[in-house]
Amino acid sequence: MERLAAYFETIPPAHRSLILVGGIALFWMIENAFPLFRFSYHKFRHAGINIFFTLTTILVNFVLAFLLVRASQWATSAHFGVLQWFSGWPLWVKFVVGLLLLDLIGAWLIHFIQHKVKWMWKFHVIHHSDTHVDTTTANRHHPGESVFRFVFTILATVIAGAPMWIVFAYQSFSVLLSQFNHANIRLPEKLDRVLSLVIVTPNMHHVHHHYRLPYTDTNYGNIFSIWDRIFGTFAKVDQAHLIYGIDTHLKEEENSRIGNLMQIPFQEYRQPTSQS
User: Fold this and answer.
1) Nearest by Cα to 213 from 231, 230, 233, 193
2) Sign of the four-CA dihedral 132, 104, 81, 1
3) Whole-structure pTM value
4) Cα distances (angstroms) measured from residue 125 to each of 2, 62, 128
5) What torsion, rounded to 10 degrees, do the Cα atoms 264, 37, 110, 193 define?
6) Residue spans per domain, the chain
7) How far apart are CA 114 and CA 218, in angstroms?
8) 181, 134 in Cβ contact below 8 A?
9) pLDDT at 275
């Protein structure tokens, strides 16, 4: 465990980039070989749109990174945060508790809030507007949403009192799990049943990308599946019945053009409809 902590404490930027690019490449190959849906679309054009938003997310995170480092340094030096309660516990316990808190606040909570606050939802619509969900969809976030998520990552870091090695580990796992659970693959039912007790699987997260309520407002998790089970937002749907996208933006000129996607948060709010 000490080696893992030492690695993430000084993880080279090249390794973090490799996790992002390598994850996309790996899951892209897997979903090409074993797709859940055989989409009739221009895969590279679709990926290009999502990679554009991946780059804007990287830019936002890069510009604001110093705030995250300062927050972690302050919390640990001031002995502030939940992890201080575990000072005498084994390192692996602090690691797991830190990951759980960062995932709950930095991923699940902000995701849930964006679905409930109209003006924040308008930024999140860009993510849901993808009608061909695959591993590249994982980082399809409007720059404004990237800021929201970063702020909640800082909040989670302070509440947890997490050192930077746990934050870096969380971010790395978050990237990989998000690419995995968005991938256009279907896991065997027995394997999914076991894995989804702990982590968010593609079978679970795909439900969240069904184009209409109430399924849009379920399965908010990113790394750990327990939060949706605890807070009553867990749902299962036959994968064959899923339709991706969001019912308010199903026109291709609205959901497949970067110019319009960037403007959606500033357009008039559209009320989603419930599943009939």
Assistant:
1) 233
2) negative
3) 0.94
4) 41, 23, 5
5) 170
6) 2-8+47-265
7) 13
8) no
9) 61
